[in-house]
From TrEMBL:
It comes from the Bacteria. This is DUF1825 family protein. It comes from Phormidium yuhuli AB48. It holds the Pfam family DUF1825.
Length: 107
């Protein structure tokens, strides 16, 4: 069975995408959140990034041709922006850490 033939992989990918889209949409209102809302948003984004990191690691570790092609496509797309997948995750983490620091400075 191929990597993408797995119902579990398909469901997880679908859920990850839907959750990410929901958080992006919610994030457009971030400036209007109260302190607790901002804290919860940051926590949800951290959880999302960790889920995404684990999901991508499964692709990397898979010997399935399509999984490897997906990894290669991601690398190619990110290379167009001059970054690696690790740098992408690092930048996301830095952004969330900056958001936390700003939140701690607020009264």
């Amino acid at each position: 069975m191929g990597f993408f033939d797995s119902e579990i992989v398909q469901q997880e990918a679908k859920q990850l995408f839907e959750d990410y889209q929901s958080l992006v949409e919610l994030g457009s209102k971030y400036g209007k959140f109260d302190r607790e809302g901002k804290k919860q948003y940051i926590e949800r984004m951290e959880e999302m990034m960790e889920r995404y990191r684990v999901f991508m690691k499964r692709f990397e570790l898979s010997e399935d041709f399509m999984a490897q092609m997906t990894v290669q496509q991601l690398n190619t797309q990110l290379n167009q922006f001059g970054i690696t997948p690790q740098q992408m995750f690092d930048r996301m983490h830095e952004t969330l850490e900056r958001m936390k620091a700003e939140l701690q400075q607020q009264p």
